[in-house]
Specification:
By secondary structure, this protein is mainly alpha-helical. It has 13 helices and no strands. The chain is 73% helix and 0% strand. It starts with a helix and ends in an 18-residue tail after the last helix.
């Protein structure tokens, strides 16, 4: 297991370098001048040129990129062009809001999606199954920003039960978490139903029923565990996306998280902040993929050989 984890961590290095190069190149070659953004429109031409020279903006692109990577390896991602605050400090300040939103939305999605998917599979072609399929299809097809605005309209404007804008209180996370969890809930329920239908047709499930095992034990004790692998993938992917910044939801509810930070940085052509934010999101996705693979081994012991577990020695007669 340790060797496998070490290999996966080493594989992250070229991935992160590739992401950094692509983002740095896109931000560098898009229209806009950081010197004008920092000094404003009223500065003199010689002031702009002096700032470009000081920041190294007149150097070749490859040299600027290598200089950026060298500083990043030492933990220095530079200062934001907009706020002049260190990029790392800005990300750390906004990270708790994004983590809280991601955790709460994932808990909602899993606690509702798993049992609903199991119920739908156990009652295939019933009214409950049709209702679940219709509801998940509706949640999947709804745009996230539209669903968030409908929640605000109903629960904030009409019923006046929950606030629509974020200022730090726990009640202000309820609507954003529901809006963020909608697509994850739908995909979790549909994937659980699909994999459960495959598993409950297996021979060992029929054997368990033939031996007189209770239906609840058959479904939750035998079938669900073997149906969880694809579901864990869906949950891990959506959780990493939320940690990387639920961009649309954070914009709608004015949550000062990573998603909002990324959007504002891109609009302002804030190269250090944008590059660091995207790198952080890519790192989260890579770590979550590794954690999902590790969870696989604990759900299904047959997969432990993938991590280099020693095989049983043959005993000679």
């Amino acid at each position: 297991m340790a060797k496998y984890i070490a290999r996966r961590i080493l594989m992250m290095i070229p991935v992160m370098l590739g992401v950094s190069f692509i983002v740095f190149a896109i931000m560098e070659f898009t229209p806009g001048d950081p010197a004008i953004m920092i000094l404003g429109e009223g500065a003199k031409p010689e002031e702009y040129e002096a700032l470009r020279e000081k920041m190294g903006l007149n150097d070749p692109f490859v040299l600027r990129y290598l200089r950026y990577i060298g500083e990043a390896l030492r933990g220095n991602f530079g200062n934001s062009y907009r706020t002049r605050i260190p990029v790392t400090k800005e990300i750390i300040t906004r990270l708790p809001n994004t983590i809280q939103l991601a955790v709460v939305s994932t808990i909602i999605a899993v606690s509702l999606g798993l049992p609903v998917g199991v119920l739908s599979a156990a009652k295939q072609y019933s009214v409950a199954d049709s209702t679940v399929l219709g509801a998940t299809l509706l949640l999947t097809s709804m745009p996230g920003f539209w669903f968030a605005m409908m929640l605000i309209l109903v629960f904030s404007v009409k019923l006046r039960l929950l606030p629509s804008l974020f200022s730090g209180a726990w009640r202000e996370f309820i609507l954003p978490a529901i809006a963020t969890s909608a697509s994850t809930l739908a995909s979790t329920a549909r994937m659980t139903r699909s994999t459960m239908l495959e598993v409950i047709r297996q021979d060992y499930i029929r054997t368990a029923r033939a031996k007189g095992a209770k239906e609840g034990r058959v479904v939750f004790g035998h079938a669900l565990r073997n149906a969880l692998l694809p579901v864990v993938t869906i949950i891990g992917t959506n959780f990493s996306n939320a940690l990387g910044g639920a961009i649309v939801i954070e914009q709608v509810f004015a949550i000062p998280g990573l998603g909002q930070l990324m959007i504002n940085s891109i609009r302002a052509k804030d190269v250090p902040m944008t590059t660091a934010s995207v790198l952080f999101a890519a790192l989260i996705a890579s770590v979550m993929n590794l954690l999902v693979d590790i969870v696989y081994a604990y759900i299904d012991p047959r997969l432990k050989s993938r991590f280099g577990a020693p095989k049983a020695k043959k005993v000679s007669a």
